[in-house]
What does this fold into?
Amino acid sequence: MNLHSKRCSVSSPTKDQDISKWVHDVTRGDNSLSVTLTRSNPLSGETAPFKVVTKMRTEQNKHKCIDVYRSHGDFYWLHSALQVSCPDRIIPPLQHQISLFETIIEFQRFLNRLSSHMFLKTHPLLYKFLCGSNESIRLARTEYRQSKLELTPQESRPQTRGGEQDTSLADTKNYLLSLEGNLLGLHDHFQAIRKLNYGGAGKWLEAISLNEPRDTYSKVIIRDISRIFQSMNNTEGEESIEDWSFIQNLQSTIQYITSAKGLLERIEHKMDRYLFWEEEVQTCENANHQHSSYTPGNHGNNTPVFSSPTDSNEDLSVFDDSGMSESGGSSNTGTGTGYPPPLSHSNSSISQKWAEANSQSTSAREELERMCDCLAVELVHFDYLKEKELKNILTDFVNTQQELMQKQQSKWYAMRILLDTPIERGNRSIQFVYEDQEAD
It folds into this structure.
């Protein structure tokens, strides 16, 4: 089947092109980029099993097509690389499938989601995957070091978290958790419908029929009904995978929701990290304020090394030479009198710790702001795409059930006609005769 229009000029890349032209073309409109995945022709000599055709609409309203061949590993490399490169985005899931047909559906769905995303469709990694030469893909995969998208070890959970500040974040996360649970229940129900087996009823009805010694109603009619039940069960094997592909689509949508939850969890981690270092900055400032306000014989008259508006009654005995508090506390050293250590040493240590905490706090705040800048737009896009996918899933489900019921309607009607057959009173399986009657 020819997948290209007559106005589409087809090319296979031999070297990487300028990405700026790509970004300009794919951002011209919602339908400016389309990606089609097919099985590569074994006779073409290509070792990669998948052919990816990318169609773009140019300024002259013409279509430009680029053909590339990609392997399974290329798809999984793209997915992992995007996860590492874009922690502030909801990267569509990509799951391993068993059959070739299901794999093509999964890869096509993954590319469709990327090509419809306002940011990801312009990402250099996707551009390299869709338009790059085989050599550029090989080099990119060689340079790429597999790294899972995991939350970096958290320094410590802050004593307080933003109460009203992250209410929207918590509400969104709770919504996604509830939606995920409901869709999992719907998925299990779909699976149960698919596994509905009429063969069991047909098996037992056939046994009842065979047990009849004469051609009674139970033997003839129930035998015919058992055959109809068994034929209804056999239609399950005759159905193609496409008939129930909406179950796989629903499973992918659930995994997409899990990816959205992952973004919210990464933002929560950034928030915790920022609040942790803010508390460390405040602790150092409180400690410096107490040291700077103390001089033996002249309490409270020294000028702080750096000002802090915060007053604190914290006991300085819980700080060691690094300026960090110790959970168990320690006795003061250097004077042997129970007073704080010399100011020149303590203030220097606390100042170093404050500088580190302040630097970490600034870095954490910038990371948090960067992730939150695009959060609203990212969630709106995801929510709209999720609604479209659920609409398509339910439409496919209704159509599948309607077609199935139409096929079975005639069989149910035939069983109804058979059941209306009158029972002959004289034709009995049990013919009990007394011994004296036999003697007569």
Notes: The longest helix spans residues 245-292. The mean pLDDT is 76.
